[in-house]
Amino acid sequence: MTGIDVSTRNRDTLIQLLADVLNAVYWTIDGATDRMEWGYTIKKTMGYPDDEVGSDVDWFHARIHPADREPFVDTMGTAIKSCGQWSGEFRFRRADGVYIPFRCSARAICGPDGKLQQTIGAMAQMTEAKTHATSHAGEFQALFESAPGLYLVLRPEDFRIVAVSDAYLRATMTEHSRIIGKTLFEVFPDDPTDPYADGVRNLRASLERVRATRLADVMAVQRYPIPRPESLGGGFEERWWSPINSPVLGNDGQISFIIHRVEDVTPFIQQMQQEGKEVEGLRLIESRAQHMAAEILLRGQELQLVNEQLRQVQKKLQAANRELKDFASIVSHDLKSPLRAVATLASWIQTDYADKVDEEGRENLAEMRKRLARMDRMIDGILDYSRVGRIDENYEPVPLQETLAEVIRDLNPPRDAEINIDSGLPVISGNPVRVRQLFQNLIGNALKHGRRTGLEIRVSCVDLGTVWRFGVTDHGPGIEERHVERIFKMFQTLAPKDKTDSTGIGLAIAKRIVEQAGGRIWVESQPGHGSTFHFTWPKQVAADKELRESADSLEVGSVTPQS
Amino acid sequence: MKPGRAILLVEDDDIDARTVQRGLKDLGVANPLVRVGNGEEALAWLRDSANQPPGIILLDLNLPMMTGLEFLDVAKADRRLRRIPVVVITSSRLEEDRLASFDHSVAGYMVKPADYGQLLEVLRTIHHYWTTSEAP
């Protein structure tokens, strides 16, 4: 009021004008009598006619809202008694019964003796907005803070926290006093030990989007570890959040606040991660299973192809076998007949015309008969060989001790020949005729190629677990390394044809017999010191026989591809 | 061979037949030799009542018209013929021929040797067997 010169009388006018323009009411209470006087605006503002306005304090007190009355009376009474000033709010009843919120200031006027002379008060009606804020602020704050959601209210200009719900405080292990007034990022910094932390960056980006667009921004689920209070061990605690930032717009359309609402989805994410691991594992298994199915399908198709090829090969083999058999009978019946006839006729000429043929003619006839005999043996050899190739073998136990004794007796070795046979030769499984033939050929070979005098032959046997290994050793001239392969082929001999009785079929047949049984034959030789023919003979030839029988149907692991 | 009884040779090959003929002669066997060319002719001769039953039949297997084994099928089913000893003389060394022949109750199975000297040995053996054996 300084600078305005208003006389005392005019001052009253000014007060009335002010009261009028502000919808205000003013009053005085006499310190001695409690007599109360109201300014004239009580009629205009509150609707009370002059005759209804009481002239004592009780009338005043009676029109204060019962809920506000006691605090008002108490606090103002205390202030006035100490010659102080009071200000506060209360609802005052209008003449129509409606309580109107008023803001009120009152001052005690005391004499120099400290005695209360008068109390002067002024009351101004509060605006609608102000009414709510003031009268319900506490309730709304309480409501907000006890809401079950996790809320932060931020100032849009610097993202400082202006309000927080208790649930948020609990979830983030913090306290009201420690976060109000601070920026969100001060309170929840990134974990400095986590190189992948991007919570602050993401949150700031979202808040800035809200500020720019004035639209709510839903953030993706964030991994945003929070600092653990020292009392709980410090450090950071892994948390996952689902945040939404929503603007609160004022009447002017500008953002007054940003509500940062989050949900703690940590247990959900952890569950997901756990399930994710399981799902990942399942996916891996599924993918492998698919690979395997594809592989099986492929293998099945390959098997079908191979089966088909085997069937073709088997057909060819059967045809070849038939041809071989036919060939064998052709050779035995038809080829040998003319041969025999020639031989017989040559023989008759030799005897019948002995006196008519000269020495050279007799020699020629003798040579002719030798060649015919040789041809006969070769035909027999081919027949033997072809017969070994046939698959209708009968396998039975062959006691080798006896078989070898018979073989040697049949071979009729020279008297001075020494044939040593390992004692305790096993009983093997095989076709007795073939086994006999095998040893006959090998021992016969040794007799044939051994030393002319002091012949020494050894037949040995070693148990190698699944197979027997036999050896027939002679001390003949031996075989040079370069001939080793040759000797097992048909009609191959190392001696000139007309200087030996051998047709060169014996070892070829031996090889065939051994290989038919699933064994292997080879020779170890030192030229000048002799040779050892080794061969292996499986102990389980029966299984081989089954295999051969099953080869007739030739169903090799049938796999039906899934369609 | 048993005196008087004929020897029936069933053989289509002339040289083979002559070989047997000559062999028997060389061995001094005096029995008459009757030669026929196949199984049918053999059966016809055997069933001809004008002919005395032979003491032995020397049978080739690989024959035209009726093979040796087919002849055996019939002969061994015939009560009047089945006791006549049959010796197979063949060039076949096949196991199945040998087994089939003995299944038809042949008295012997000889493989024709290429060499005439060996053939003589075969015939000598047959002769010994037949003269020693107490045939019906």
Characterise this structure.
The complex is a heterodimer of chains A (563) and B (136). Chain A is 46% helix and 21% strand. Chain A is of the alpha+beta class. In chain A, the strands form five sheets. In chain A, strands 6, 7, 8, 9, 12 and 13 form a six-stranded antiparallel beta sheet that branches. Chain A has a five-stranded antiparallel beta sheet with strand order 2-1-5-4-3, with helices on both faces. The radius of gyration of chain A is 63 Å and the shape is rod-shaped. Residues 542-563 of chain A have low confidence and may be disordered. The longest helix of chain B is centred in the last third of the chain and has 17 residues, at 116-132. Chain B has 136 residues and is an alpha/beta fold. In chain B, helix 1 crosses helix 5 and helix 2 (39-47) packs parallel to helix 3 (68-75). Classes of the chains: A alpha+beta (563), B alpha/beta (136). The interface between A and B is medium-sized, with 22 and 19 residues.
Secondary structure tally, helices of chain A: 15
Radius of gyration of chain A: 63 Å
Biggest sheet, spatial arrangement of strands of chain B = 2-1-3-4-5
Oligomer: heterodimer
Q: Based on CA inertia axes, which overall geometry of chain A fits?
A: rod-shaped
Which sequence of SSEs, written as H and E, runs from N to C of chain B?
Answer: EHEHEHEHEH
What Rg of chain B do the Cα atoms give? Answer: 14 Å
Sheet having the most strands of chain B: 5 strands, parallel
Task: Give the proportion of residues in helices of chain B.
Answer: 40-55%
Q: Top keywords for this entry?
A:
heterodimer; A: 563 residues; alpha+beta; 6-stranded antiparallel β-sheet; 5-stranded antiparallel β-sheet; 21% strand; disordered C terminus; B: 136 residues; alpha/beta; 5-stranded parallel β-sheet; globular
